[in-house]
Write a structure and sequence with these properties.
With 184 residues, this protein is an alpha+beta fold. It has a domain of 87 residues: Nascent polypeptide-associated complex domain (Ubiquitin Ligase Nedd4, Chain: W, Single Sheet), CATH 2.20.70.30. Helix content is 32%, strand content 18%. The protein is built from 4 helices and 8 strands; from the N terminus they run ββααββββββαα. Strand 6 and strand 7 form a beta hairpin. The longest helix is centred in the N-terminal third of the chain and has 22 residues. The protein is elongated. The chain starts with 8 loop residues before the first strand and ends in a 12-residue tail after the last helix. The relative contact order is 0.06. This is Transcription factor BTF3. InterPro entries: BTF3 (IPR039370), NAC_A/B_dom_sf (IPR038187), Nas_poly-pep-assoc_cplx_dom (IPR002715). Belongs to the NAC-beta family.
Length: 184
């Protein structure tokens, strides 16, 4: 059945087709016109503009930083000394350190003429890793405080600094120490 108001159209091959687009030229009812009347472009334009506005609003909500966003403070993680000690002990265990017993004291001499003194320390060593650890209570003392018992541990550098200390000592005291002679 053919509608009187709709003329037949020819396709690219020159064959006649009905407006409905069915092959063979058969008549089909026409589709209703697009929404909004005969001018189909205007509603689509409004729709795309509204979609862009909605997208802009959604993008504004997702943004990171900038003006108007909530400020989050950086979370500070406090590490305890026991956690650090556990990590250190785990690392030493991986190195394969062994305890060395029988060490009563450890003295470390600094360039400033002071001594870092450990009394009854825990000493561990790993010769393969070239690692030595000294654990215990450390005290920083002046070389003059440790003098009588430390003389046999002094090296050549420490002896020269001790000589300078001995020469400066009588000048600082109100009364000189009698009978004190220095020989090396």
């Amino acid at each position: 059945m053919r509608r009187t108001g709709a003329p037949a159209q020819a396709d690219s091959r020159g064959r006649g087709r009905a407006r409905g687009g069915c092959p063979g030229g058969e008549a089909t009812p026409s589709l209703p016109p697009p929404r909004g009347g005969t001018r189909g472009q205007e509603p689509q334009m409004k729709e795309t503009i509204m979609n862009q506005e909605k997208l802009a609003k959604l993008q504004a909500q997702v943004r990171i930083g900038g003006k108007g966003t909530a400020r989050r403070k950086k979370k500070v993680v406090h590490r305890t000394a026991t956690a650090d000690d556990k990590k250190l002990q785990f690392s030493l265990k991986k190195l394969g350190v062994n305890n060395i017993s029988g060490i009563e004291e450890v003295n470390m001499f600094t360039n400033q003429g002071t001594v870092i003194h450990f009394n009854n320390p825990k000493v561990q060593a790993s010769l393969a890793a070239n690692t030595f650890t000294i654990t215990g209570h450390a005290e920083t003392k002046q070389l003059t405080e440790m003098l009588p018992s430390i003389l046999n541990q002094l090296g050549a550098d420490s002896l020269t600094s001790l000589r300078r200390l001995a020469e400066a000592l009588p000048k600082q005291c109100e009364f000189p120490i009698s009978g004190f002679t220095w020989s090396h």
